[in-house]
Prior knowledge:
The complex is a heterodimer of chains A (363) and B (515). Chain A is mainly alpha-helical and 363 residues long. Chain A has a domain at 71-301. Helices cover 70% and strands 5% of the residues of chain A. Chain A is built from 13 helices and 4 strands. Chain A has helices at residues 13-38, 42-54, 57-82, 90-108, 114-143, 147-167, 200-217, 219-229, 231-236, 241-268, 279-289, 296-318, 323-344; strands spanning 2-7, 192-194, 197-198, 345-350. In chain A, the strands form 2 sheets. A two-stranded antiparallel sheet of chain A has the order 1-4. Chain A has a two-stranded antiparallel ribbon with strand order 2-3. In chain A, a hairpin with a 2-residue loop joins strand 2 and strand 3 (197-198). In chain A, 46% of the residues are buried. Chain B has 17 helices and 22 strands. In chain B, helix 6 (179-194) links the parallel strand 7 (167-171) and strand 8. The A-B interface holds A 6-7, 9-10, 216-222, 225-226, 229-230, 232-233, 235-240, 348, 350, 352-356, 358-363 and B 21-23, 51, 55, 60-66, 78, 92-94, 171, 310, 312, 331-333, 335-337, 342, 344, 346, 349-357, 360, 363-365, 367-368, 373, 376-378, 380, 399-400, 402-404, 407. The site of adenosine-5'-diphosphate has 12 residues of chain B, from strand 2 and helix 1.
Amino acid sequence: MSFAFEKRKTVSKTAIVAVPIISFIVSLVLTGILLVAFGADPFSTFAAMFKGAFGSGRALTETLVKAIPLMLTGLGVALAFKLKFWNIGAEGQLTLAGVAASWVAIYWSPWLPEPLLLPTLILVGCAAGALWAGVPALLKTRLKVDETLVTLMLNYVAILISQFLYYGPWRDPKGFGFPGTQMFPREAWFPRIAGRAHIGLYLALVAAAVLWFVLNRTRWGFELKVIGNSPRAARYQGISVERNILLAVLLSGALCGLAGVGEVAGISRRLQQGLSLGYGYTAIIVAWMAQLNPIAIPFVAILMGGLLVGGDQVQMVMGLPSSMGLLMQGMMLFPMLAGSLFTEYRIKKITGTQARESARGGA
Amino acid sequence: MMNETASEASLVEMRGICKSFPGVQASDDINLRLERGEVLALLGENGAGKSTLMNILCGLYRQDSGDVFVRGIKADIRSPRDAADLGIGMVHQNFMLVDTMTVAENVVLGMPSLAFIPDMAAIRQSILELGERYNMTVDPDAYIWQLSVGEQQRVEILKQLYRKAEILVLDEPTAVLTPQESKELNAVVKRMQAEGKSAVFITHKMDEVIAFSDRVMVLRKGKVVAEKVTADTDPKDLARMMVGREILFRVEKAPFKPGAVVLELKDVCADDERGLPALRDLSLQLRTGEILGIAGVAGNGQRELSEVVTGLRPVKSGGISINCVDSTNKTPLQIIKSGVSHIPQDRIAVGAVGDMSVANNLAMKDYRSAPISKGIMLLPKRILEFARKMIGQFNITTPSPETRIKFLSGGNIQKTILAREIESCGSLLIAVYPSRGLDIGATESVRKELVAQRDTGKGVLLVSEDIDELLSVADTIAVLYDGRAVGVMPTEGADPEEIGLLMAGVQPSGKESNS
Ligand SMILES: Nc1ncnc2c1ncn2[C@@H]1O[C@H](COP(=O)(O)OP(=O)(O)O)[C@@H](O)[C@H]1O
Ligand SMILES: [Mg+2]
């Protein structure tokens, strides 16, 4: 007797929900084994992590602070991935949008009417993110240049641009030489909800709902689905593949950009070192864990935010490296990717002489 | 456990073979014998389980139960290499050649006995000798992509002969050939037979059974329904056994009453993927209430013809008009909106989206307008309603409208595409090889549907390589050769021999029509 994978005819609804949960549990077990190897008690460590992430009002708001950019970049990345456009440039789109928003906050505020300041800052930030994603999208659709490399390289360009600005021309003259711009005027701050959690949370939740609606309930979403599955079929159906990829990637960049706007206007209130803690990369994990489903992304982002915050806590309480949280994030991806197999396939038991896998290539 | 001696045993014997795939029993307790020097035809509709059975013999699939004996000895065939060691070779339905390598390289590719640095000169020489012996010459240094489908098939056969295959399995080999090429293939098979080799010949065409085989085994839904000596049977008898009911060989149609011109091509030139001329000053005319059949061997501009008309390929010079409106180099969407429907050659990759549901595939043209959408919004409930209606109307067999279309059989995928294109058709339907690879049941319903469209006053452009299909369905036949229409004739009184010659590039007067 042996087992074989068999492709499912329809994606299992149970599996879609069960897989992330089981993957999470598997990653807990794997991390637990690792903790034991470190000589730490896994149960008290997990308890400390959980408490650090969700155990108090302050913990909760700090988790949200990290979840907000993860939600937005996760949504952006997921949209692009749906079209098989491998945007791994969320980090750069976020950073450049932070730069653009800072520019508006510092240099436009003197003459821009106050009520227009926040909307303008958001729009300009999103536009910068869209621009940064638009470059590789244009290169891909016009010249078939591989987007993976271009989006990745543009991350470094964006980070260097921001460094140049806050070390150079934009550095705060009264900042005792610290790298960073001056504080934004109050009108350019994102209002806060609780602790440091800001209205970016509402924006992210609305974005998730809107994105879900667009993808599942509009004609454009239907077209994107066809393009993502088969560009040749899309072209034959009269759908403009290049134009729609470009539009969707611009939107993807804008969402990632909104994350950057939230970081500068909601958290640091200035442009400075450490604008992003690698959110743009973690976004890729978030998007995959949520199986590119916009509704699942906020939940996964909160979980990931919790891991980051809880990881810091573990360091303080248990004396373990704070990279424990990062480690767990990584550990989560493996069971997740393995698990996604089960939404597409199921296990079939084989008896008798059929000792080997049943599905192999052939006519 | 077996005490038969090699001399009285069959060359190949398969006993009680069972094999199931999710939801289908592809082989159901099959017993098969093949004798030395014999050609056995495996006849069956699409999905009857012919390929599956032979894939088991050739080590691509593993049976769930049952045994295979070769030369009287129980054989455990776990891979194509095991099969090759037993002298079994298969030419698959979809060729398995590497496009960017030469004929000689493909012939020896993957041979375990191949030296680290192969002696290509010797290999080339033996390929030429084999070609000579079987009268099927191929240039050993040509790249696969440069070859026609017929030539590629020769490479596949040479590959097996080079490996000294004693038992050759040919899976629907004639599907891609012209009538002339089929005759040549028949000669090759006969030649092999004279040398004492054996063959299993898979087909769903009755006349080929008669032409190629000594014995025939008919499969239906994974079961053997008949086994006969070919000489004791006839096409009608075979068709009945294969389908399990009587089949109409001719399609009923109303008298031919052509109306206004729907489609006109004037001196159209276009290139293929490689930038080589594919259509050369092609001029054609199609009227309402007419089926214009395009005959020709695949690769003579059929694909490009359908693509220039539907806006998928640029026209370099010349002009196309649809309903007397210029449509040269319009976008695919503009052409769809002018009432053109298209059943593409490549069903799986172009005509349908494999990972989307049957319902979504059905809605893929009509999603742009009410009732499926409302403004920018899509109404999923309406998609399902629409799909249920289409599934009923066109007899599509699917577990549910939400099943991903790639799990349907070829015939049902084609019916789905047909349903969508007919439903959204305004005045012109372009059908490219619409019945290719379908069994007679499905072919019959596709042909009836095309004729029904013509009878309601639409123009139908039917590209086909099956002369019988064109003769029974089309009103006018144009033969495409090397991107040109080399003959346009009414179907009434058309001579199949003449069409065959035109397809091969020979003018009936006897002189070669070449560029
Ligand atoms: N690899 C596979 N996975 C799942 N189903 C398969 C596979 N191969 C064949 N089938 C199914 O088995 C049946 C027989 O297929 P096949 O042997 O290809 O038929 P034929 O060659 O007679 O047209 C069909 O219903 C087909 O869908
Ligand atoms: Mg087959």
